[in-house]
Write a structure and sequence with these properties.
Structural class: alpha+beta
Distance between the termini: 103 Å
Shape: elongated
Radius of gyration: 35 Å
Number of helices: 6
Strand content: 25-35%
Strand order of the largest sheet: 1-32-29-28
Number of strands: 32
């Protein structure tokens, strides 16, 4: 006999079917716990949009500071950056970095929007603290280097304190705003929203827009770059020419150099004289001239208004130890009572503090012993004689670059052992947070309009450089541009008073001798 279906007044009958395997047991309890957790996480009341926009403005500021602090030329060549974003992604990603920031902002905004305010508030406080503290500690701390032009070793402490106070104020504003939403029980504040709180979201959105515009301006503003110059007349290509800039006549003077190498004869040598007047090269035809040579050095004597030339090597391998002066019309051979020994590739500059031309270092080669001699002596030319300056600490150099540093009122030397300065009777190594790598055959020149020392090119071992660096008296900064001279060493470089910029001509890279001319465009 079949039992009739049992009747239940509440359920209208009970099913005799076996229960669902998921409706009971441990798995069911886990599913119910997950369901309750999900319901608690994503159920109303939701986090206030005003506080979300405030945090997004802080995050945008953090990312904006990082993008504004990238080195010059980053947007032309992101590979120059060795830093990472606060998300640990490399800046070498270039424009994709902006996409990473945007994705992070979107993710944070979505999470805070859909979360229950009880869970969203601790996350909001943590992110607020993280982004505020990280931006100030890394980019405005004195030990972090100067990421911005308004910071230097003299004011970094004041800048750090100022930005620390600003960060504290922003965090206090965030907590004050949160207290009006009753997120901080121990902070008893009238929960009626003040007028400034109703505008905080709009102000945050406006600040985000401003940071985006600043970053866009930094990416699209005119960049420092090199520009090819095409004069009507151009000297034959060469390297290791002697050059100096005549500030009284506003012309660059270039003499000699070498233009080619052959297996039979080695490097040839030249003895032509050219002047650059700011618009074109003009070949001079003096009655007298030094013998053909390369590796000579020259400097303009500001006090006497004369270009002084010394040393060099002839095609026959002879090393010269003669002194010549150029007055703009003819070369005159000087007859000093004493002079430095014959050599090639010394460095020379005019010292306004001593009012003399200074010569340092150089090298020579003895074909009989087949050995090189590197010099570490310092001499000064007073217009009639060479006098040796004694050094307590000597160091030899050849094929370096030197310029008078107006910031230190002493010479700055770059060679294969790094940056050096000479004061009194001692050489001192120069150390900065960022410096060009050690190199030979580079060129240094002072850029008066922006008060910077410019370095370009050179070589170290088999590597030849095409990088441009500037020194502002505090630190070195690299200028990176999509357009720049090819890598080279032994070129001519000077500041042109007529054009108001740095000019570069010639040079060597491997077997290529350059005949091109460039000017540095500073924005």
């Amino acid at each position: 006999m079949i039992n009739p279906r049992q009747f239940d007044p509440n359920c209208q009958g009970l099913s005799s079917d076996p229960p669902d395997e998921f409706s009971a047991g441990p798995d069911n309890k886990f599913r119910q716990s997950v369901a309750r957790l999900v319901q608690g996480l994503f159920s109303p009341p939701y986090f206030p949009g005003t506080l979300t926009w405030f945090l997004l403005a802080i995050v945008t500021s953090h990312g904006g500071i990082e993008l504004l602090a990238v080195p010059d030329g980053f947007w032309a060549d992101p590979s120059i950056s060795t830093s990472y974003t606060f998300l640990s992604t490399p800046f070498t990603w270039g424009a994709w970095t902006v996409g990473v920031y945007a994705g992070y902002l979107l993710l944070v905004g979505i999470i805070l929007t859909v979360l229950n305010q009880r869970f969203a508030f601790p996350l909001w406080v943590g992110l607020l603290l993280c982004h505020l503290s990280d931006s100030i500690n890394y980019y405005f701390h004195c030990n972090s280097g100067n990421f911005f032009d308004f910071m230097n070793t003299g004011n970094c402490s004041e800048v750090y304190v100022s930005f620390t106070l600003l960060i504290g104020i922003l965090f206090a504003v965030g907590l004050l705003a949160a207290s009006h939403y009753n997120f901080i029980p121990w902070l008893s504040i009238d929960t009626r929203q003040p007028s400034w709180l109703s505008k905080l979201g709009a102000l945050s959105l406006g600040w985000m827009g401003l940071m985006v515009l600043l970053v866009a301006y930094g990416a699209m503003r005119p960049q420092n770059t090199w520009q090819l110059v095409d004069p009507v007349h151009v000297p034959p290509g060469r390297t290791s020419a002697a050059s100096a800039y005549d500030t009284q006549r506003s012309v660059a003077v270039m003499f000699g150099g070498t233009s080619q190498w052959t297996q039979e004869a080695g490097w040839n040598s030249i003895n032509d004289t050219w002047e650059w007047d700011g618009n074109d090269w003009i070949e001079a035809h003096p009655e007298h001239s030094p013998a053909s040579r390369y590796g000579a050095s020259a400097a303009f004597d500001e006090k006497r208004g004369i270009t002084v030339l010394f040393g060099g090597t002839g095609q026959d391998g002879r090393f010269y130890g003669d002194t010549w002066e150029w007055d703009g019309a003819d070369w005159r051979k000087a007859s000093p009572a004493q002079s430095p020994s014959a050599r090639q590739s010394p460095v020379m500059y005019y010292d306004p503090t001593r009012e003399t031309v200074i010569l340092y270092g150089g090298s020579s080669y003895d074909s009989e012993t087949m050995s090189n001699t590197f010099f570490d002596d310092v001499w000064e030319w007073n217009g009639s004689n060479w006098e040796q300056i004694p050094l307590e600490q000597s160091r030899r150099t050849s094929s370096g670059a030197i310029v008078f540093d107006p910031f230190r009122q002493s010479p700055m030397l770059m060679d294969g052992e790094g940056l050096w300065t000479w004061q009194d009777i001692l050489w001192f190594p120069l150390d900065y947070s960022r410096v060009p790598v050690n190199r030979w055959g580079s060129r240094l020149t002072y850029y008066p309009p922006v008060q910077e020392i410019v370095l370009f090119g050179g070589f170290e071992g088999e590597q030849v450089f095409d990088d441009t660096w500037v020194f502002d008296g505090q630190d070195w900064h690299q200028i990176v541009s999509a357009t720049r001279p090819p890598a080279r060493n032994g070129h001519v470089m000077f500041f042109d008073q007529t054009r108001g910029t740095v000019m570069l001509f010639g040079g060597l890279n491997g077997g290529t001798v350059y005949q091109d001319m460039w000017e540095l465009i500073r924005q």
